């Protein structure tokens, strides 16, 4: 039997489940504070925005299973280190521009608080994984990282060295749903997202420099709105 037929049988056997599906589209303001690397240096994803698509399946009695796909882009700084003189001298840069893109898929429980038809607070938490890319714009002494074999380093189309890695992520959130019984509800939500990024080698940098982006934590605070549609 095809999966669609299984779904039809499930919904027929549990009519309440068919009515308790919801899909949303939201936008958040995101702020990631600095993480201290050493006394004179820090890393942070900084300020940015996020698009969020939550999907909920009702489990009854105000409980939901929620899956969320979200993607954020923020402007901050990270710390990059490299070696020269045959590996005998280590240099670093932490004043370059870094754009941090995080795209994550997360799943977890959500619980409504109360049964009001006007406003319904809720709490929840999710676990998942994020694909995080740190795009860099190097200048000054850090321009030594640019690899001429990858293209014209003076061209605006040249892509500076970057990192990309998959990392586990945790998210906790609280919010309020307005007009929860209507076909389209509005949610106001705040959350805290935490992920740790291990040290990663810079892609497209000069290989003889052994350049790496140092480890840091993504600990973003987010606040936003979402429109949620009952399916």
Describe what this molecule looks like in 3D.
With 231 residues, the protein is mainly beta. 7% of the residues lie in helices and 63% in strands.
Which secondary structure elements does this structure contain, and how are they paired or packed?
Elements (H helix, E strand, L loop, with lengths): L2 H11 L1 H5 L1 E12 L2 E4 L2 E20 L2 E15 L2 E5 L4 E5 L3 E16 L6 E19 L24 E17 L5 E14 L2 E2 L10 E2 L2 E15 L1
Any idea what the radius of gyration is?
22 Å
Extract low-pLDDT stretches: 1-18
| N-end to C-end Cα span | 24 Å
The helix count comes to: 2
Main sheet: which strands, in order across? 1-3-4-7-8-9-10-13
Q: What would you call the structural class?
A: mainly beta
The description of the largest β-sheet is:
8 strands, antiparallel, barrel
Please give a quick description of this structure.
Helix content is 7%, strand content 63%.
Keywords:
single chain; 231 residues; mainly beta; 2 helices; disordered N terminus
